[in-house]
Amino acid sequence: MAQPQQPDNKNAAEPTSSVPVTESFDKETTLNKDNTLPQPASTKRKLAARDSSPDLNGTSIDRSSSPRAGRPSFSTEGGGSGFSSFVDVSESRVFTPSTSVPSLVDSVRPSGLSMTQRPGAAYDGQDRDNVGNGDEDENDALEEHAATAQAEEGSIIIDSDDVGTDDGYGSDTATNASTSLAESVRDYIYENGRRYHKFREGHYNFPNDDVEQQREDMKHAMVKMLCGQQLFFAPIGNRPQHILDIGTGTGIWAIEMGDLLPSANVLGVDLSPIQPDWVPPNVRFMVDDVESPWLHPRNHFDYVHSRHTVMGIKNWPRLMRRALEHIRPGGWFEMQEVHHFPISTNNTMGPDHPISQYWTLINQGLNNLGVKHFHAVANSGLSNMMRECGFVNVTERVLQIPIGTWPKNKVLKTVGLYWRTILLDGIQAIALGPLTRGCGWSPTEVEMFLIEVRKAYKDNSPLLHMPLHIIYGQKPLDYP
């Protein structure tokens, strides 16, 4: 019998199934004369549909002021959700631009850099020739390859000229959440100036307002930059039929997967109906709690994906068992989780450092609120849970995310700049719930504490980084 093709991953375990592996193919993109990414025809159709769409009162929406102005209407009725309790927010929709961060896109692709397609990387389907500027293209490509290699090997080269304090980040004050569209069709709660989900109130202890959504989209762009534009690492093949995205948030990952794999049905599930209104026709979203019983048929999904949920899931082993039951034999479950406890490359950050104290208190507050797996991602904790639940061919890759601009590699320097921005922009959002709900602090006490934490994040001298753990496992072909 012919052996299945293996993924282009030197660390991946050999799958036992005959699941086809995503193949690498070379498709290159030429930048416009103004050094911007070319706009494919599909995006132009999305923009036209978005700009002409009516709001909930039948009037035209001016979306120029906010990239996340469009929001889905939703119903409390609908059958066959697949979960025990749900709100299906999917309608018949046309394409719209996925929620992107233009500044990040410009930073990822310098002038003249060709983009070569990788497994799991988004591609618009158009062939382009005459790419690049010779040596500059080659140098940029080598720089990008070196960035991912250094991040995975934990051998990030230091830029000795950029290890001091960066005072150019901006204001120390927190940004107020902007007013969202059509508030009357949502059921939210407001606490300490931030907006939280109402469905299964208190299950997720972080806000879902527009400011947080933009931060989550920036986080998505940063992770893609670190991972060489890959959306996934599990060898799921090129024709999966049913994909589930757990904790989909703004839906940006699900939307890009729908664009990448148009033959697949992509379902994104979250506690909040904050996804865009206009999405690919093969993508839909559902409001539900994935820690409730799943009502999907057994052996239904080809691939289940979860990212940035370690601070929200209360019972990881139970979730993994449910995923195993509802993934088809030979299918894959992948988690991409950051261990939110910074590591100092030069061992200069002790337990009394403001950033150490910050994350220790966040862990304590979440633990008091029932989220007890904050450190499970470290020391192969989630990998071991996956094996114990019955998954095979479990593989774990770890990429280091620098905090700040101390790396010498220009891609990692950009990653570090944006990761620090993401952490600073979310410093209040992450702290308010765990510290006020879990530790009994007042909002004023939280704000006073955050002053020193903000200052500490701007200091490059500890050479901080956080590990991103990419873990995936396969359901056995002979699973009963």
TrEMBL record:
Q: Where is this region: Disordered?
A: 1-175
InterPro entries per the UniProt record, alphabetical: SAM-dependent_MTases_sf
Q: Which GO molecular function annotation, any one, does this entry have?
A: methyltransferase activity
One Pfam family it belongs to: Methyltransf_23
Entry-linked CDD domains: AdoMet_MTases (cd02440)
Q: Where is the composition biased (Polar residues)?
A: 1-21, 32-42, 54-67, 93-102
Homology family: Belongs to the methyltransferase superfamily. LaeA methyltransferase family.
Q: Which PANTHER family match?
A: ABC TRANSMEMBRANE TYPE-1 DOMAIN-CONTAINING PROTEIN-RELATED (PTHR43591:SF10), METHYLTRANSFERASE (PTHR43591)
| Protein name per the record | Methyltransferase
Source organism per UniProt: Podospora fimiseda
- Taxonomic lineage from the root: Eukaryota, Fungi, Dikarya, Ascomycota, Pezizomycotina
